[in-house]
Specification:
The structure is a homodimer of 402-residue chains. The first copy, chain A, has 402 residues and is of the alpha/beta class. Chain A contains 19 helices and 14 strands. Chain A is elongated. The interface between A and B is large, with 144 and 143 residues.
Amino acid sequence: MSQHGALENLVVLDLTRVLAGPFCTMMLADMGAKVIKIEMPVSGDDTRAYPPFRTNCNGERESLYFANINRNKQGITLNLKAQEGKEIFKKLVETADIVVENYRPGVMDKLGLGYDVLKEINPRIIYGSVSGFGNTGPYRLRPGYDILGQAMGGLMAITGSKGGEPTRAGSAMGDILGGLHLTIGLLAAINARSITGKGQRVDISLMDSVIAATENTAIKYLESGIIPPRMGNRYAAVSPYDGFKVQDGTIIIACGNQKLYEKLCTEVLDRPDMITDPRFSDMEGRLANQDDIRDVIEEKLADLTMDEAVSFILSKGIPAGPIYDISQILADPQVKEREMFVEQEHPTLGHMTVNGCAIKLDDTVPSVRTPAPALGQDNDAVLRRLGLGEGEIDALRAGGVI
Amino acid sequence: MSQHGALENLVVLDLTRVLAGPFCTMMLADMGAKVIKIEMPVSGDDTRAYPPFRTNCNGERESLYFANINRNKQGITLNLKAQEGKEIFKKLVETADIVVENYRPGVMDKLGLGYDVLKEINPRIIYGSVSGFGNTGPYRLRPGYDILGQAMGGLMAITGSKGGEPTRAGSAMGDILGGLHLTIGLLAAINARSITGKGQRVDISLMDSVIAATENTAIKYLESGIIPPRMGNRYAAVSPYDGFKVQDGTIIIACGNQKLYEKLCTEVLDRPDMITDPRFSDMEGRLANQDDIRDVIEEKLADLTMDEAVSFILSKGIPAGPIYDISQILADPQVKEREMFVEQEHPTLGHMTVNGCAIKLDDTVPSVRTPAPALGQDNDAVLRRLGLGEGEIDALRAGGVI
């Protein structure tokens, strides 16, 4: 195991706020990139005012939301509307590899800090942005929110119970998908730069990212003319593949093929007759009679706990698992072994838990190293590296530039 | 605009099947990597037998699912259980950059083709895998399905209507998230290799990937002790931020702050009294009385179409958008401008539409170039490049190795 992150050679100037952008730069920082988060003086990232909160060691209300997603980043303040702020930013761009922002398209250009300007300063700079609809097209200036990405990207239309309303995925999936696509784009551009010697622009849209995540929905619709309906937890092509109620919750059973179904009938349900019963004997029949199969399964498992039912079914070689809530996830031995949550000491919040990194690299191991920055905590160190003296830094502070 | 893809220097040996792995290698191929998809002789990838189907030019039923997600890839067949198959695979590893597989953990080791063997052949090889639970931990050998990742990763528990059942995201979101995390891990490892000179192993789990996508759920629960409930399309901290019924469908209105709410009251609802009404005057009140606000909004918009309502609300500077189904997405001008669906000629399926790439790079532009491979179509070309002669290739074919 090396002590070095996979991206330790990269310097990232991070202008992002809230979730989609900061989720991207969190992954980059977890993998060792030197991420300098640049915030507006005084106010900072909006999520510094987002719940959940904890009363910190100074008796102030401080955000755990911000602390979770901004660990491993350095933090400076810089007013990009002030001329001196622009100059300092441009100086930082000279030696950076990546600039990331999630403003509405056009904002950076208006500030005089768009890609066209930055690439003149440093042709190797990679410029990544994520916005609701991307940097092109008729909707590019529309405000973008996670829920709009989920709605207009088609995820809501296919999520929800049969006959029920279109349903939002319970986390900010539009933002998460945008952040993941942005990270891929930036790293692909890093590879391209190793060939071409120059940077480029990466332009990610929440709506595009959600469309990509609906995989074959368009192909299905175009071929059949049928708009895929919402169908709860069921899957159009396979049955039984659904949630089933047991004593203390709901479990999933996923019989992907005929052999697994027959095993389920004989070894779990004690109902070998259901193998030959014409209602269930083939996949088509099972799809048409799913409710009847569900009743038999739920009756059989009614007295078992989730743990007991899952162990029993897995022991017969049939795919199964619990529907976990977050308390059960945090207690799960697999989750612990995979270090998907990590304990961290924060200077003002004290002991806290943050999300782990889902990208497991066995040599350059991603890690949670430093807590999220206090607003402007690295101003002096970063500005001194640019050659500014104590007096100049004090003047910038007094002038509200940092 | 360059004609070269961002990853054109990379050769990927792709052993993946179904969705999570092929979605990853699709992105790599869209960005120019030379992806050689390796399938079992005769049967091939399971999804060659997945709907939707089209009767092809030979009068056979052929899968559009497979064709969509495997465009831009070359295809060879290779029986990795046969000694000659193993030898050919090892020879391919000598000059490849990346091996990707989504078998259950242990399968490649049992074949004698695990990472420990491959890195002896080529220390620069990067070995990526995606499985239900990853390569470590007590569940590593459990069967992994998308729905199990969604269930055990906690996405289902927070998705669904208020008081309703846990709900699966309507696409295979566990597989998609796994494929995205895998792609990031592989590209990070490529960057690390440029520093260390050697490859490493990337180990992605669907469950981990889903946990990461539930963002702050754990932080919220740990601080409050409250398991986040399902709440349909609403958001715990902001209101109105929900779906609202109009004449011909449902639209989203997202008032992220007090100013947007007040604008909604005066300019959309003609109800300035709702600004000062103590039930709605602050966010807390609005969260407690969401149903009342919804009734006012829906009454006001009842006679408008989705298009009319969205245009009207956007014109007032308030974030809004339609809940689109796939037919509306395909017709949308923004989606067309962003090229999220691309027309392609397939040699046996004819004219078809495939998904575009959501990763927009402005110099090394991702593209859809070649159709998905027929089973084994590139056997001769690839084996000849390894130095095999016509007779040897015929013998491999006769022996069922390719």
